[in-house]
Amino acid sequence: MPVEMTASVVWQGTPFFLRLFKYNLFCCHSMRTTRLRISLLAVCLFTLLSFTVKAQNDDKQWFGYMDIYAGPRIGVVGSNMTKLNGDFLFGPSIGGFFEVHFTDKLAASFDLNYTYEGTNNAKCSSFSNGPEGTTDISMHMLNSDYRCRYYLMRNFNVAAGVHLMRVLKAYGKIDGKSEKLHKYIRRGNISIPFSAEYNLGPWAIEASYYLPLRKWDRKNENILDEACTNKFSVTLAYKLQVF
Question: According to DSSP H, which parts of the chain are helical?
């Protein structure tokens, strides 16, 4: 018997429900293939639409003239005193800011904050237990920052400016006892901040380094061995557009 006739007889002799199962299997496979193609086409169209919208957004202006943002800023400050070979002291930074945009990429910001700074286990000839002794120096500071910001991207900017420090109280600890330092050192100081800020929605994370410009000792005095404050900070701000 020819092969074609044998296959026909076998197929006709197959129970009806088995033939129906085989037909549905092949039919469903075809339907799955069609659905897969439709899904892939939808994904491609959605991806193309997303890139189109992103390109249109990139062409839009990032900021308008005189856009003003303000909000709180908190973080951590790490500091020590140069020439005293002390350990870093970590303290809080609490304050607020406002930022004014002049062009699409150029802005100016002002910060006012409180910080706790100083150094631990420092070797200071005036405030230590003998020439080999150490002391802990702490300073309560009120700071103001004036920075010029340049936006490299919509959510990323770099900045530099002027950092003004005002000593509220300062102490040098010897044998567990605190000696007042703010009566013998400068009450104000200055440094140059360099920072980079990344924005994620209304949140802004900023890392800053402060380059010291002036020692804390007054003229013709040597209380802190001509030391300066060396510090960096990491802060988190919440930006609200107020205008």
Answer: 3-13, 16-59
68-81 and 87-101 strand pairing: antiparallel
User: By the 8 A CB rule, do 98 and 238 touch?
Assistant: no
- What is the full per-residue pLDDT of the chain (243 aa) written as tens digits? 444 444 443 445 444 444 444 444 444 444 455 555 666 666 665 565 555 445 444 556 788 888 999 999 999 999 999 888 889 999 999 999 999 999 989 999 999 999 999 998 888 776 655 555 678 899 999 999 999 999 999 999 999 999 999 999 998 876 667 788 888 889 999 999 999 999 999 999 999 999 999 999 887 777 888 889 999 999 999 999 998
* Vertex 225 angle, CA 127 and 183, to 5°: 60
Other CB atoms within 10 A of residue 88 CB: 14
